[in-house]
From TrEMBL:
Keywords: Magnesium, Metal-binding, Transferase. PROSITE patterns: POLYPRENYL_SYNTHASE_1 (PS00723), POLYPRENYL_SYNTHASE_2 (PS00444). This is Farnesyl pyrophosphate synthase. InterPro entries: FPS1-like, Isoprenoid_synthase_dom_sf, Polyprenyl_synt, Polyprenyl_synt_CS. The keyword Magnesium applies. Its cofactor is Mg(2+). One of its GO terms (cellular component) is cytoplasm. GO terms for molecular function: (2E,6E)-farnesyl diphosphate synthase activity; dimethylallyltranstransferase activity; metal ion binding. Belongs to the FPP/GGPP synthase family. Pathway: Pheromone biosynthesis. GO terms for biological process: farnesyl diphosphate biosynthetic process; pheromone biosynthetic process.
Length: 387
């Protein structure tokens, strides 16, 4: 079932409760039909990905104008190597969401070649923030591959020492690109604040994630409440709230009402995204994902682990305690077998469906058609993802 059919199904589940409910849902059903018809024309994801990639050299060239890069040509060359090596090859979901938000929310008569350049620049800033986080995250997790290639710190021409310094260079690049393009804009301070706040929240989520894994097999913290706190801070803010907020700020549409909607829906999207990510880490196809799953070996507080502990009998919990967080390949396989025995994949499909429907129902409260269209298209981009 595609997303549009799912939305219509979710809508039909609540029809009949009252005359008011029927009226609201008929209106939403009309919106569903309108948005589904526009999916193929409103935002061409394939075409915009090409445009986003075409914009990257220009974004980097602006950064290269810095006097220090002019003074040290070798640093300029390395900076380009670092950014290209960590930005190219991904799904660019955050960058595309930024551009998608601007293009859908902005009035058509206000969209120009220059405003689209700025939207794509902000999109790359969101991608650069992710690159900064991933370089350090891969070191902290001891990850092996990223996007089908060795992690940045594992490259022969990089190493851990260079990778840590490169992360600093990546972060500075974000700030300088933002300054070079928006310093004279009235929205500069607000844009800067949102990047800074997002990095802070993400670091809190990373802290919760790392400290839970270091808890020496004490799984009392493996609760859904604790998991949701990790997801909210580590994933939702910089994966959804930041890109959507950036696009709305550029369109001058970030106000009290849209702020509340972005907050609520981004947190739900982030929860769905991380649950999918956890499942893919364990059961995904490495040829498709481009990375080896490591959540079991690292003892991560994942959705699968929390659900498993909720379902475990005493003998199964004993197996979990011995094998979870172990680097032994046989132990990882035993945990995967335990997940299957506990029917975790089936529970995942059920909860994934519930979350899709929950998000769709929340969207009914969004009053602006363009904003509702945006959230539906962001959700569509996440529908049934395998990587």
């Amino acid at each position: 079932m595609n997303l549009c059919k799912r939305m219509a199904t979710a809508n039909s589940l609540v029809v009949g409760r009252s005359v008011a409910t029927v009226t609201i849902n008929k209106l939403f059903e009309s919106a569903i039909q309108r948005v589904c018809r526009s999916f193929s024309t409103k935002f061409d994801l394939k075409k915009e990905r090409e445009e986003l990639h075409n914009a990257l050299p220009g974004v980097i060239d602006v950064l290269a104008k810095h006097e220090k890069f002019q003074e040290i040509p070798a640093a300029d060359k390395w900076m380009r190597n670092v950014l290209n090596g960590n930005l190219i090859g991904g799904k660019n979901m955050r960058g595309l969401t930024t551009v998608m938000t601007y293009k859908i929310i902005e009035k058509p008569e206000n969209i120009t070649e220059e405003t689209m350049r700025l939207a794509r620049t902000l999109g790359w800033c969101a991608e650069i923030l992710q690159a900064y986080c991933l370089v350090l995250d891969d070191i902290a997790d001891g990850s092996i591959t990223r996007r089908g290639m060795p992690c940045w710190y594992r490259r022969e021409d990089v190493g851990i020492a260079n990778a840590v310094n490169d992360a600093t260079l990546i972060h500075y690049s974000l700030l300088q690109i933002l300054r070079a393009n928006f310093e004279k804009s009235p929205s500069y301070v607000e844009l800067f604040h949102n990047f800074n706040e997002t990095l802070f929240y993400t670091s809190l989520g990373q802290y919760l994630d790392i400290m839970t894994g270091l808890n020496n097999k004490n799984y009392n913290l493996f609760t859904m409440e604790h998991y949701n706190a990790i997801v909210k801070h580590k994933s939702a803010y910089y994966t959804f709230k930041l890109p959507i907020t950036l696009g709305m700020i550029l369109a001058n549409q970030f106000n009290e009402e849209t702020h509340k909607n972005v907050d609520d829906i981004s947190m739900q999207l982030g929860r769905l995204f991380q649950m999918q990510d956890d499942y893919i880490d364990c059961f995904g196809d490495e040829n498709m994902t481009g990375k080896m799953g490591t959540d079991i070996q690292e003892g991560k507080c994942s959705w699968l682990a929390v659900k498993a502990l909720q379902q475990c009998k005493p003998n199964q919990r004993a197996v979990f305690t011995v094998c979870y967080g172990s680097k032994e390949p046989a132990h990882s396989e035993r945990i995967k077998q335990l997940y299957v025995q506990l029917k975790i994949p089936e529970l995942y499909k059920e909860e994934e469906n519930e979350y899709y429907n929950k998000i769709i129902q929340r969207m009914q409260a969004v009053s602006l058609n363009a904003e509702r269209d945006l959230y539906l298209q962001v959700l569509d981009s996440q529908y049934g993802r395998k990587q």
